Amino acid sequence: MRIHTEEQDKAEVSMSPLIDCVFLLLIFFLVATIEKKENRDISILLPESQAAERLPPDDEQLIVGIDEGGHFYLDGRVASRAKWQAALRDLAQLDPQRRIRVDADELTSVEHIAEIAFHCQKLGLSNLGFRTYDDQYNRR
Amino acid sequence: MNIRSHAEDDAEVPLSPLIDCVFLLLIFFLVTMMLKRWEYQILLDVPDQTASLSVTKDEEILDLRLDPQGNLYYDSNERDSKSGGNRAYIQIPDILTYTQQIASDPNYNGVKTPVVIRADRETSWKTYLETQDILALQGFKDIAMTIREERKSSDTIK
Question: Could you tell me if B120 and B151 are in contact, meaning their C-beta atoms sit under 8 angstroms apart?
Answer without folding.
Answer: no
